[in-house]
Design goal:
Length: about 325
């Protein structure tokens, strides 16, 4: 959908759209204006973009004006196949969350256990970090690491016989992108790819100021670099968004890498630092990562998706090239 057409659609719908809260199966919710309700999805305007939410993920829609359930949707026993392979699994199977509070361990123990799941993401214009979220090879990194790129490779360090073996995977697909949250979901699709070691995401939302954390990444290309620090604040506002601020050293190349607590759970995604000082690193809270993964269909890397940040035109045919030369 072109930008002028999209603007017209929003202008037209503003006379009829109603404010509502859409309750989702994963206990999350989306609030905004209902632009359209179709048999297989509901389109919600959340301000800066419109989300297309599959009916299979909706528990109920509540009209905010009357605060009464507007519609309850019965969920089928089997989930239909969606456009991206990332969506073919339930969210519970797509990534892992620690079910209970794990016992804290030393950074040394955790790095040995988690290091294999942290990867280096390479593009023709630079490199960043990332981390694998399930055994199928799906991984998270920053949007700005992959921005404008389609040729991506991932360096993984597999642990075999007590030694780390570096392997470069060249067949990497972009699954979903969220430019506003600076998040990207990729998938390793090499034929020889094994089942991958993966991380768990923190689901407690109990991160506290002063809590010890550590980052693993590739600052300045120095792969598998570990830095440790504390959480300085959990609500640092930068350009209208809230970030975790940490004293763990973050440098170019750390972008997209995980920030762990001492229970071994990812609590954030490192993405920037203050250039004028030291010990001023910032990370995207893991709540934003879970939201991105739970709604990955809305951010699918697909030219038919209105939220897709890229548009690729068809290459010119020989006939059109000949006409242009005349």
């Amino acid at each position: 959908m072109s930008k002028p057409l999209l603007g017209l659609c929003i202008l037209f719908c503003c006379f009829f759209a109603t404010a509502a809260t859409v309750q989702l199966k994963d206990k999350a919710s989306v609030s905004g204006k209902i632009l359209a309700e179709k048999s297989d999805n509901v389109i919600v305007d959340i301000g800066y973009t419109a989300l297309v939410i599959p009916r299979t993920q909706i528990v109920k829609i509540t009209d905010e004006d009357v605060e009464q359930p507007k519609k309850t949707v019965k969920t089928p026993t089997t989930r239909p196949t969606l456009s991206t392979s990332a969506s073919s699994s339930n969210n519970e199977d797509f990534y892992s969350i620690s079910p209970t509070q794990q016992k804290e361990r030393s950074v040394r123990e955790l790095v040995k256990h988690l290091g294999e799941a942290v990867v280096q993401v390479r593009t023709p214009s630079g490199l960043g970090s990332g981390f694998i979220i399930n055994e199928e090879g799906f991984l998270i990194t920053n949007f700005h690491v992959t921005e404008g790129e389609t040729q991506i490779s991932v360096e993984v360090y597999h642990q075999r016989k007590g030694q780390l073996e570096r392997h470069s995977y060249k067949q990497v697909r972009i699954v979903a992108l969220n430019k506003f949250a600076d998040l990207a979901l990729l998938k390793i699709e090499d034929k020889d790819a094994p089942k991958f070691v993966h991380v768990t995401l923190d689901g407690s939302n109990a991160l506290a100021v002063g809590e010890r954390v550590f980052a693993i990444g590739s600052p300045l290309g120095l792969e598998r670099t570990v830095t440790e620090g504390i959480i300085s604040t959990t609500t640092r506002e930068v350009s209208g968004d809230l970030y975790l601020q940490t004293t763990a050293q973050i440098n170019p190349g750390n972008s997209g890498g995980p920030l762990f607590n001492l229970r071994g759970d990812v609590v954030g995604v490192t993405n920037m630092k203050a250039s004028f000082g030291e010990g001023l690193g910032f990370a995207i809270p893991v709540e934003n990562v879970r939201y991105f993964l739970n709604h990955r269909d809305a951010f699918a890397y697909d030219n038919d998706n209105p939220s897709n940040p890229y548009r690729y035109l068809e290459p010119p045919s020989r006939e059109s090239q000949a006409t242009a030369k005349k």
